[in-house]
Design a protein that fits this description.
This protein is mainly α. The chain is built from twelve helices and nine strands.
């Protein structure tokens, strides 16, 4: 038998045959307690230093054997308990990632964070902050309006992909004006519909005509060459690149590739790095900016209002956006069947409720939040800030003292987008 040191000045008795198989060696560790015992059967002196040995004989065997048995039982109990505690403290603290274990010393500070174990951000659930029960109990009723006397051409609605709550917007415009299928798409074609017009010569064929030019170029004819068939005032839908790019990828995957559920994270990262990039030559940032600038500068049209996606789903900005939209439609001669005080309830029913239900479905299904690298976030924020500065310069050169309110609003939107991206950067730092 031999005594071994296992640390913390505890010595235990372990069986070991000596050279003749009958003697027993008593080893007491001296020196480094943290050395690992050698169980290979060779010379263990390099771990334990000098040793003393004494052979036990049968003289006084009764008392010595009794003492020996007591020591043996006590020592083995200590050994089993300590080894078990060491085993549990070591392996319980070792998380697994993809089958590979992270090394552990057996203890982990509570506030320690393993970078590769950072919890992936998930879509948050959206919970209303205001009481909308009055809209449900007492929904607004339409009022009578004066019939339209002359033909009204639809307004262009260039909308960056995923910047409109499509179904909710269509229902809202139809309810607001009393015109069936008031919100049309430029790309919807049938025997009785082309470029948002019908052959029936109705006074109102459409209220708005959605288009994504120049992302999908419209050249024959170009929108500027169709001015006779459209209002001179246009509406523009836009969305923060921070969410627009991933939402666009998701929408295309569902529409053209039959995607079920969220796009796999690996595909998002591949798409992001290929098309967003991290330099000032970013394809998608350049496309996003060109989309806004082409319609801002297109003659003979004038932007009447910008409609950001983020406003549609905000409990304060959403109702204000609908109220402003109703004012634009009135100024264009379109019928508006509701009073200003009804707008928030129309917004809640047609926009907020269905949109939030869709967004919260992503939360229930555990969708991840598509993320960007720090370099990409810095690039997006920088491009938004630079774009806002460019618009302010154009305002100064083009309009002097008569600065259009729509340009002021655009600058505010761009600066707000940049601030949002900067906030994400701060959280990642």
């Amino acid at each position: 038998m031999r005594f071994e040191s296992i640390g913390n000045n505890i010595t235990v008795l372990l069986p070991q045959d000596n050279d003749n198989g009958t003697a027993m060696r008593r080893n007491r560790a001296r020196g480094d307690d943290n050395q690992v015992p050698d169980h290979s059967g060779g010379d263990s002196s390099k771990y334990h230093g000098n040793k003393r040995s004494k052979k036990y004989t049968r003289t006084g065997a009764g008392g010595k054997l009794f003492l020996f048995a007591v020591i043996l039982s006590f020592s083995m109990a200590i050994y089993v308990g300590i080894v078990k505690r060491q085993h549990n403290s070591t392996f319980d603290a070792v998380p697994e990632i993809g089958g590979d274990k992270i090394a552990s010393t057996g203890s982990k500070p509570e506030d320690a964070e393993i970078p590769s174990m950072r919890e992936e951000p998930k879509v948050n659930k959206i919970v209303p902050t205001r009481d909308w029960s009055h809209c449900i109990k007492n929904p607004p009723s339409p009022k009578e309006t004066t019939p339209v006397e002359s033909k009204l051409e639809p307004m262009w609605l260039p909308a960056y992909p995923t910047s409109l709550p499509i179904q909710g917007y269509q229902d809202l415009i139809a309810t607001l004006t009393g015109v069936q299928k008031a919100a049309k798409s430029y790309y919807r074609v049938s025997p009785h519909l082309k470029r948002c017009h019908t052959p029936f010569n109705q006074k109102i064929e459409a209220v708005t005509c959605e288009i994504v030019h120049p992302i999908v170029p419209c050249q024959r004819p170009h929108p500027s060459q169709q001015a006779d068939n459209f209002s001179s005032m246009i509406l523009v839908g836009l969305r923060n690149p921070l969410t627009a790019f991933s939402a666009t990828q998701q929408s295309k995957a569902e529409t053209y590739h039959g995607q079920q559920g969220q796009v796999e994270k690996e595909k998002w990262i591949e798409f992001r790095d290929d098309f967003v990039g991290s330099t000032n030559d970013s394809h998608m940032m350049k496309e996003w900016k060109n989309f806004i600038m082409e319609w801002r500068d297109m003659k003979p049209y004038t932007v009447d209002a910008y409609m950001p996606w983020e406003y549609w789903i905000d409990e304060t900005q959403g109702p204000a956006l609908v109220e402003n939209l109703s004012l634009v439609l009135k100024n264009e001669g379109f019928p508006v069947l509701y009073d200003d005080e009804d707008m928030e309830c129309l917004w809640h029913k047609h926009i907020y409720e269905p949109t939030i239900a869709g967004e919260n479905k992503y939360f229930e299904e555990g969708w991840y939040v598509p993320e960007y690298t720090l370099n990409q976030l810095e690039m997006i924020a920088g491009e938004l800030e630079k774009f806002a500065t460019e618009i302010k310069e154009k305002m100064r050169k083009e309009d002097g003292e008569n600065i259009p309110l729509k340009d002021i609003h655009l600058v505010e939107i761009l600066q707000g987008y940049a601030t949002t991206v900067r906030g994400v950067i701060e959280k990642k730092m």
